[in-house]
Write a structure and sequence with these properties.
Layout (H helix, E strand, L loop, with lengths): L5 E4 L3 E5 L5 E6 L2 E4 L4 E4 L3 H18 L6 E4 L4 E5 L2 E12 L2 H7 L6 E11 L11 H6 L5 H24 L2 E15 L2 E7 L7 E5 L9 H4 L5 H12 L17
Antiparallel strand pairs: 1-2, 2-3, 3-7, 4-5, 6-7, 8-9, 8-10, 10-11, 10-12
Length: about 250
């Protein structure tokens, strides 16, 4: 697909105008960032893996009736998506204490939570994406109470789906974050899962060993990030195993 007008560039993705009104092309970059971009690097192949993994998860969600912005994958790095109005919030679902929550609450990482906990953070890198209560969200007009109820319901459905899929391949879904967008059809509005779902936006631990298979590998210098993401893709059957196979020995008479 020919390159089109750039609409927006973020830390991990770039959006271009789409081929038809109401569509965008989402390009996945190889850039890796952490700590609000204070740490950054380029990880070869990361964008390809995230594109394929996000396609896998978004397609799976659509099959169980969860609406998303995803339309189709164009190539190894690009997706065709619906243009939506992004609500300026990250919706975080936590199944186990980890990361900022473990630090904030003085809990040991990996502690199971009594039930999934949904949190909201305000999307602003300059502020460090601070957690915000529902009262702030409604008072500042970012979303209505009905929107919040719908967002929580969407997030918990995503959690049910993702938890089951990951458990089936020996991976624990510790937590994840999603973004929600408003999709308009005339005067009618509906909320859809937007942005991406990938190891960039999830914490994924091997059930048996506890090995991290997500962006914490980069944050904490735990190894090769591309290898971790490739392992997730391999287990899910998203990327074919193209490693050369050893040839059979030849008998010499």
């Amino acid at each position: 697909m020919a390159r089109r007008k750039k609409i927006y560039e973020g830390k991990a993705k770039t959006l271009f105008e789409g081929p038809e009104p109401g569509t965008l092309v989402q390009y996945f970059k190889d850039d890796a960032t952490a700590y609000n971009a204070e740490k950054r690097d380029v990880i070869e192949g990361k964008g390809v893996l995230n594109n394929r993994l996000s396609e896998y998860f978004m397609t799976g969600l659509s099959h169980i009736g969860v609406p998303t912005h995803f339309l189709k994958r164009i190539n190894m790095r690009e997706q065709l998506i619906r243009a939506v109005e992004i609500i300026p919030l990250e919706v975080i679902v936590r199944n186990y204490a980890a990361g900022s929550m473990a630090k904030r609450m003085g809990m040991e990482e990996g502690t199971p939570l009594p039930r999934p906990i949904v949190e909201f953070s305000y999307k602003d890198d300059s502020l460090g994406d601070p957690l915000v209560p529902e009262e702030y969200i409604i008072a500042f007009g970012w979303a209505s109470q009905q929107d919040l109820d719908d967002m929580v319901a969407l997030a918990l459905r995503v959690n049910d789906f993702m938890s089951g899929v990951m458990y089936g391949v020996g991976i624990k879904l510790v937590d994840f974050k999603i973004e929600i967008g408003r999709l308009y059809d005339g005067d009618y509005q509906r909320l859809v899962v937007a942005d991406e779902i990938s190891p960039d936006s999830c914490r994924l631990w091997d059930i048996e060993s506890g090995q991290k298979l997500d962006k914490d590998v980069f944050r904490r210098d735990l190894g090769d990030l591309a290898d971790a993401y490739a392992e997730v893709a391999r287990r899910l059957g998203v990327m074919p195993n193209t490693a050369p196979q050893p040839s059979k020995p030849t008998l010499i008479n």
